[in-house]
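Expect chain and fold; thus:
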Amino acid sequence: MVFESYGVAKHDASFNESMAYLLKLNKYRPPKSNETNLGIRIHTDKNFVTILSQCQINGLEVQIKDDEWISVDFSPSSLIIMANDAFMAWSNGRIVSPRHRVVMNGQEDRYSITSFSFKKGIIEIPEELVDEEHPQKFKSFDHFKFLEFYAKDPQYLDERIIKSFCGI
């Protein structure tokens, strides 16, 4: 659907066939009296797309344009889908990778289930997404080499790391 909306549907099937997935179960405990309520610090995800179920307890917050944080409160049966750093590079910056964090306010453990997708091989920016109005912002790159690059120096938890890896 996203590929169609950007006029690059011809890439959809081959792209989907070259994806790898990681399913992660997360548990966050309530903060102790001397700890902050931050379950996970501010970051962007390095993969292509994240699908998240917050299960019974919300806690995800997303930073919006004016640097304000908004709580992502959905019913337990809802899924949250986030485009991430690799998707941002593939889209030539048209799709934004959201900065987010997990905040723990209650006294109960919080569980979530997260599915991460990764592109095997080279991510190439479709030529249809590069024009005079949208000059190329990223070079083609190997997704797993990007993850290795990030693992060596994880100081940049936000989208700046992909810009330093393959930005133009």
